[in-house]
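Aim 2 progress update. The chain analyzed this quarter is reproduced below.
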Amino acid sequence: MTGDGTFLGRMADASRERVRRARLAVSEGLLADRARTAQAAPPLKLGGFDVIAELKLRSPAVGGLATQSFDRGAQLAAYARGGAAAISVLTEPDEFHGAIGHLEDAAADLAPHGCPVMRKDFLTSPYQVLEARAAGAGGVLVIVTMLDDAEVRELVDCAREYGLFVLLEGFDRNDLERIANLPLDSGPHAILAGVNCRDLRDLEVRFERFAELAPFLPAKLPTVAESGISSAADAATVSEHGYELALVGSSLMRAVDPERALRDFLAAGRNVRAELRACS
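Predicted structure tokens:
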């Protein structure tokens, strides 16, 4: 599923090349040892409607999101105080200016807050799951669209073996049906199903996809609305459509007060949940 010239295809190809180079520096056996002995990550705790807040220095869709004076530690602390269930950290270096070091720093900073971090990247190999766990991550993103079912299962199996939760990200009905049909046995570590409403052809947000795809959300998995959540009203809307979490990046990165903005997102989503329960 690579080499097709699309944005996602280019990202997958670049990811495989990074794995190839990384293996030359650190063997998978040594990396597995580091992953096994890394300090346990805080567990993912969900509470009806939650937010995965994102540390993202750059977006290929909008450009830079962090000024020269940006303080990663202060942003992470604001997310933790604001009530994030987890914090997504971009590690892709070229388009997003991320790094494994950012993940490692975030895991260390957030451990006292009991908030897990999730590696967000274009993962293609279990080696990268081991990299995430060795850096202290409690979860990983797996983009179903760019992988076949065997590759997805391989990444999920590795994540669960090493105690990480997994966010399985899809973009259309076919992706969601594939997620629903995966043989995901029950276990102590969460599997989440996400819908990314960004169109991979032009990187534009299609917010209406959250409503269009809501009927096809896997029934047994917590569901995540990803991309395009820019206001508390957006959080309320996706909550009304049945999503139990929202992954929010650019709007929180741009917020003057990210802690307050995060609290507003949570309050809006949870108020809708409470109203729906009262009416049922």
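The two ends are 44 Å apart (CA to CA). The mean pLDDT is 93. These observations will guide the mutagenesis experiments scheduled for the next reporting period.
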